[in-house]
Amino acid sequence: MRASSKHRQTARGAAVLRLLWLGLFAWLSISHDAAARAKAPDKGSRGFVTRNGHEFSLNGKIFRVAGVNNHYLTYGSPVEVTRVLDDAVAMKANVVRIFVSPIIGSTDGSVANVFNWNSNADSSNLGVNGVYMASFNPKTQAMEINEGANGLQRLDFVVKEASKRKLRLIVAFVDYWAYTGGSRQISAWYGNKGDDRFFAEDARARADYKRLVQAIVTRRNSLSNVVYRDDPTIFAWELANEPDIQPFSVFNGWVAEMAAFVKSLDHRHLLASGQSSLQYKMAELRLPQVDFGTWHGYASYQKISAEQFADQITQYCAYAVSYGKPVILEEFGVPRSDPDRPQIYRNWMARIAADDRCAGWLVWRLVSRQDSNEYPQDDHDQFDIHNDGSPVWLALQDSAGLMTMAQTRRKFVRQQEDRGQP
Predict the structure, then answer these.
(1) Backbone phi, then psi, for 324, in 5-degree steps?
(2) CB within 8 A of 377, min separation 6: which ones?
(3) How far apart are CA 168 and CA 55, in angstroms?
């Protein structure tokens, strides 16, 4: 996620793209009806999502992602968690992306936190309610995993509740940024103040990261009794949220090492780096252990127009064919200060739905009512999405449905090709 500022598309470009979207929707609706008559989709399937070339696959069928990000599910209250997941279902999303957080200093206070762990803010604004997944143990001089009710049992609840709703989860093992500790907190345990290579190069930080990964991947869910690596609710693991490690040689070496480590523990789940990829352009997809590519883009932050961002979507989808692996637009948003926000969302997501090279999208970010029963303030980025019946909500809901129809159309076309029919 990055900060953003207002950027509008031109009226002419908006009109053209709006017509394209309507035409695409009509074509997909016809194809969807034909495919539904040919074979009803298996909605009850809970197998593992895999990859087949540049596409995701579920039980031999194409699976396209229409999803949401949420940053507080691992430390929000049970009510706040279920509200987000229910809203994801209402939006017709099939994947939710989360981070394993927070990570703190030491529980005895001798090692400081890099963020305000005691904040009284609501969950969306980083009030973490005393929750932490890992801390520094001054006696062992290493990471200590919190397996308690205010630790990994919070993640257990998220996974169990997502499974009940037939949602899939992309789980980033750590947030690279310091908003709730993340990799910056791990580096701070050893005296580093947050440069872009210490976390990847320091032997102690690397050992701690592996300790956290192993604790999560091999964990038995206290609520479902299913070991995480055996749970198809998890769509994929990510090494981190936006591991902005520099230079590239250090980043690539860290990804290679950690991806191999994850795969040694779990060969069934897909794996991505979680990189924003605006700088490295999916280069980590050359590594065999990395299964799919992610990119994060914000037109307002990049200071480009909506039309230019749409062209960027096409560019990144082309990488999928180049590398032979799926690529998803994993974070994107339009600030609410932009009056064209609903139509911009429709245009961007219609472009993804219409391009068979694109594996899907996850919008930043779905935020639901907090324990106060109010939506939180979002004055900085202004990207929050609410289940409020607004034009923006309807645009996302329609676009998620559009991805499902596009997925069904692809299945139908492939069936016809297999049968030798035009």
Answers:
(1) 70, 30
(2) 125
(3) 17
- Expressed in percent and rounded to 5, the helix, strand and coil fractions of the chain are 40, 15, 45
Write the single-letter amino acid at 339. P
- The token pair at 245 is 């490690």
d(CA 15, CA 21): 10
Rounded CA gap, 413 and 46, in Å? 24
Q: What pLDDT does residue 60 have?
A: 92
- Would residue 382 be called left, alpha or beta, if left means φ above 0 and alpha means ψ between -120 and 50 degrees? left
Q: Which two tokens stand for residue 422?
A: 């035009």
> How far, in Å, CA of 18 to CA of 186, rounded?
47
- Identify the CATH homologous superfamily for domain 11-417: Glycosidases (3.20.20.80)
Calpha distance 422→389 (Å, rounded): 41
User: Phi, psi (5° rounding) for residue 2?
Assistant: -135, 160
How far is residue 295's CA from residue 217's CA, in Å, rounded to a whole number? 24
Average pLDDT over residues 385-390: 98
Closest residue by Cα to residue 63 from 78, 47, 79? 47
Please report, as a single letter, which amino acid is at residue 192.
N
| Two structure tokens written together for 201 | 């190069």
Inform me whether the pLDDT recorded for 155 exceeds 80. Answer: yes
Distance CA 139, CA 150 (A): 22
Average pLDDT of the chain? Answer: 89
Q: Rounded CA gap, 220 and 229, in Å?
A: 9
Tell me how long the chain is.
422
pLDDT in tens, 5-60: 333 333 334 443 444 444 444 444 434 443 433 333 344 457 999 999 999 999 99
Residue 119 structure tokens: 């904040």
* Residues facing residue 134 across a β-bridge: 103, 145
Other C-beta atoms lying within 10 Å of the C-beta of residue 359? 25
Run of H or E residues at 65: strand 65-69
Residues 353 and 24 sit within 8 Å (Cβ to Cβ):
yes
Which pLDDT tens digit goes with each residue over 95-144? 999 999 999 999 999 999 999 999 999 999 999 999 999 999 999 999 99
Q: Which amino acid is at 389?
A: G
Pull the structure tokens for residue 346.
Answer: 């429709």
Matching residue, tokens 């190069």: 201
The domain spans of the chain are 11-417
